[in-house]
Amino acid sequence: MIGFRVDANEKIATGHLMRCIAIAAACQKKGKQCLFLLAEGKETQRLADRGLPYRVMGTEWNDMESEKEQLAQILDEQRFEYMVVDSYQATIPYLKWLNSRVPVLYIDDLAREIYPVTAVLHYSQWKDDQSYFNQYQNIPVKVLAGMEYTPLREEFAQRYYEKREKRILITTGGTDPFNITYKLLSICLCDEVFASYSYDVIVGSMNVYEAQLKEMEHQYPPIKIHKNITNMSDYMRGCEMAVSAGGTTLFELCACGIPTVCFSFAENQMKFSKEIGEHEIMFYAGDARYNDKIEIDICQCLHRFLENKKLEAEYARRMLELVDGKGCERIVEVLCSK
Fold it and tell me: Where is the signal peptide (predicted)?
């Protein structure tokens, strides 16, 4: 059995849970049972919909040290072959303790520490950068670094293309704390070019501006609000361009080859979102925390794609070269190895 220790709530992006779900689905294809361990009972419907068993421990999500006693009981009951941990709240002492009980694969986004675990996953690693491997040089930790390990759902491993419509996809993940979606739509609807476009807006489960967006949808038929979708790749492949906050969604868009304008609004998003712009994979419009007019910059980036179709095609080509959508298969090879 493979265990997953992960949380999702108003403070933790749902991307953490979703990538664990993707890895779990690949584990199930290999005949492995999976069990998710959560501090609180939020976002559990996503697991139930996919037939993934879970246990809610009723502990504090931001104090993982306090859950050791209850988690130890679960470890005694279950025979885990590996435990995948995806949480910024996991401390080094916590991971060291857990790894002494069961091999741990820690998903490390920030690359700020050397973790005392069996394996680490750091997939936002560029090919020309060996710094993460160097951190673990001469340390007995299995390092999975590089975008070939990006944990995407199976639908993103398929290389096929829908007919792209005059449509723009907008997604910010589980939340949208700066209400970027509403502000951007307001600008696009008044833009001479983009007023003729349609918009697929993916609303996260903890977006506090959902009612405002639905009111806008009611007033403007070109806007379609979608929530809890299970076929994200279809929406991506059917659009001409996309706007996305940082996170796993950027890798999904790469696998689909959709010209994208990205931005960030959280610390864990900023570094990679900026880098993907510097590598000329996507246009990076900046960070909403420091740019109160970011929706204007996003719209200008969309215009850049429209005004230079050769540039748009080149960006799409680089995206497809970056991510092949088979990362989960490579991760599961490690989880299932002796």
Answer: none
